[in-house]
């Protein structure tokens, strides 16, 4: 059984492409080890996961760290190997394990590593940090150093936001002119016109850590008439609880504008049991025009009623005075809003609901009902993520006396493209039908013929780029893993002998990498490596425990398919009975288990 378990890694399952076998004769061993003798670079050391390397939990105690360190030291200690090449490889792996233990065994460096990773250990300024500090003090010190670095980058940062809106009049598709007008030249085809456009853009320029300058502008046109405006604002963060903003604006349709906006958090702090912060914003404005000075004041008070519900009270005086109260409940799967406004000239009641599907495309379906002095509007629609930074949405608006409209919106990063299409002034069933079905047919056709192939090509391009950028590092990882497997041979033989004597845990086969089980993905290539020996080396007292971390960092492992989903498949024998289990890359694994037993009845 021992020789059978060791020889299993020389042959793979049918149809599986694995790394070539490394069981060479002693005459070739020297040349093979010489190929592995490339020294580990600093960049390679930086890419190691120390917890995964030692195979311990992130919450591991000092005793657990010490036990894992001693075990790996016994495996990789240079004095245990007489061959010069193997001795050299063992020395490099021993130093790598020692480096991981040094970082994790020191409470200060471990606190930095846990919070900020290896980049935190390389941060400039740690040499002046006084030792014997608590993790909280280390966090504060790191944040101070990070703020200094951020201040040097302030001038390079902007936060551009923009909106482009194009209004389309397509009423001629459903509401045609009378027959006596059809003798006009070109009237045989429906006339679709662009009747309004709006473009706005804003950028932010941080001046200091607390001051930000904001420049924005807009251009609008409707039915041949248009205008524009430009605004400049200066925002200062006064404390963690508030900020203030001064605004100056001018335009060709309206005179100069002076405004002051204040924000204040009224809650001292967030409590652990009850999340009930509240805040208030106040916006004062003076609008100069040919009719004189028009003052305005808007105040908003908000309060969290519970973890997912926020209540708002708004009072607006001056231009279009109104009072508004609303209740917003936002959860992981839904978004609900109810609002009531009393004002001049508009008063209305609003109820809206949005359902969030838990899929990769973040699909959302929404509907709303709005009724007031202006009439009644029913709106329904959906939105879906079509790429990493793009969200496409469409909504149908049916109202009296507004008629039927189709609204298409595309959000691309911080840019918004909005296309309201007015279909008819009347409530025509045909307009509602085509406004509902048309976008669905167009979307699914585009998704199948354009979007899906494009995203697949982009993903392949990114994976290929990632493989090329990490090719050298992955080759070193592979050589390191193969060297570790060679160093494990004697230890594995002793472990198997001990497990056989007690009818314990023997790893028969273990494969790590990308498995293809779905028939729809038969064209994809299987990419796995044999990890039978490394897993058997981790067996202790007839138990194998793997923590919640990527298994590519375990001794004797490496990543055979960078950027792709990986799994670990294990066939093992316990008390003379075969067991089998498959675990995801970052999933914790504990064997043996009764649920892994292979049913051999019949």
Automatic annotation (TrEMBL):
Record keywords: Acetylation, Chaperone, Coiled coil, Membrane, Mitochondrion, Mitochondrion outer membrane, Phosphoprotein
Subcellular location: Mitochondrion outer membrane
Biased composition regions of type Low complexity, renumbered to the chain: 12-22
Record Gene3D superfamilies: DnaJ domain
Entry membrane topology: Peripheral membrane protein
Gene Ontology CC annotations of this record: mitochondrial outer membrane
PANTHER family in UniProt: DNAJ HOMOLOG SUBFAMILY C MEMBER 11
Protein name: DnaJ homolog subfamily C member 11
Species this protein is from: Galemys pyrenaicus
């Amino acid at each position: 059984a021992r020789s059978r378990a060791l020889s299993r890694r020389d042959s793979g399952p049918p149809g599986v492409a694995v790394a070539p076998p490394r069981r060479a004769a002693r005459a070739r061993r020297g040349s093979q080890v010489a190929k592995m003798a490339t020294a580990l670079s600093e960049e390679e050391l930086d890419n190691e996961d120390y917890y995964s390397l030692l195979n311990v939990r992130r919450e591991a105690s000092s005793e657990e760290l010490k036990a894992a360190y001693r075990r790996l030291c016994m495996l990789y200690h240079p004095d245990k190997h007489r061959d010069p090449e193997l001795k050299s490889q063992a020395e490099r792996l021993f130093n790598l394990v020692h480096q991981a233990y040094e970082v994790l065994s020191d409470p200060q460096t471990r606190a930095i590593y846990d919070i900020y990773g290896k980049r935190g250990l390389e941060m400039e300024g740690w040499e002046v940090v006084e030792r014997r500090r608590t993790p909280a003090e280390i966090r504060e010190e790191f944040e101070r150093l990070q703020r200094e670095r951020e201040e040097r980058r302030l001038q390079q940062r902007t936060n551009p936001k923009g909106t482009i809106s194009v209004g389309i009049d397509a009423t001629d598709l459903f509401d045609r002119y009378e027959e006596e007008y059809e003798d006009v030249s070109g009237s045989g085809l429906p006339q679709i016109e662009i009747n309004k456009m709006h473009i706005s853009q804003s950028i932010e320029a941080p001046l200091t850590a607390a001051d930000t300058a904001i420049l924005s502008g807009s251009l609008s046109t409707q039915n041949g008439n248009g205008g524009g405006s430009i605004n400049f604002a200066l925002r200062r963060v006064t404390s963690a609880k508030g900020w203030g903003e001064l605004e100056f604006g001018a335009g060709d349709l309206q005179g100069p504008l002076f405004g002051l906006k204040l924000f204040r958090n009224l809650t001292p702090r967030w409590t652990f049991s009850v999340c009930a912060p509240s805040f208030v914003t106040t916006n004062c404005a003076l609008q100069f025009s040919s009719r004189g000075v028009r003052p305005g004041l808007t105040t908003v008070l908000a309060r969290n009623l519970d973890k997912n519900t926020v209540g708002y009270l708004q009072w607006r005086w001056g231009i279009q005075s109104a009072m508004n109260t609303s209740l917003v409940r936002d959860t992981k799967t839904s978004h609900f809003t109810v609002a009531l406004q009393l004002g001049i000239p508009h008063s209305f009641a609003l109820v809206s609901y949005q359902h969030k599907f838990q899929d990769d495309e973040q699909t959302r379906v929404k509907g709303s009902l709005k009724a007031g002095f202006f009439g009644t509007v029913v709106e329904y629609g959906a939105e879906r993520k079509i790429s990493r930074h793009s969200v496409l949405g469409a909504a149908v608006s049916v109202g009296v006396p507004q008629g039927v409209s189709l609204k298409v919106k595309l959000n691309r990063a911080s840019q918004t493209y909005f296309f309201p299409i007015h279909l008819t002034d009347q409530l025509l069933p045909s307009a509602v039908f085509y406004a509902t079905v048309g976008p669905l047919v167009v979307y699914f056709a585009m998704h199948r013929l354009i979007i899906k192939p494009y995203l697949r090509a982009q993903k392949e391009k990114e994976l290929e780029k990632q493989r090329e950028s990490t090719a050298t590092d992955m080759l070193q990882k592979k050589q390191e893993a193969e060297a570790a497997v060679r160093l494990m041979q004697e230890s594995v033989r002793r472990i198997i002998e001990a497990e056989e004597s007690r009818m314990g845990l023997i790893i028969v086969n273990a494969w790590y990498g990308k498995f293809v089980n779905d028939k729809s993905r038969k064209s994809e290539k299987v990419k796995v490596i044999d990890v039978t020996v490394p897993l058997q080396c981790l067996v202790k007292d007839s138990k194998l425990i793997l923590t919640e971390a990527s298994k590519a960092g375990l001794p004797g492992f490496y990543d055979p398919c960078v950027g792709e989903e990986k799994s670990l498949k294990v066939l093992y024998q316990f008390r003379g009975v075969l067991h089998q289990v498959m675990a995801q890359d970052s999933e914790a694994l504990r064997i043996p288990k009764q649920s892994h037993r292979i049913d051999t009845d019949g």
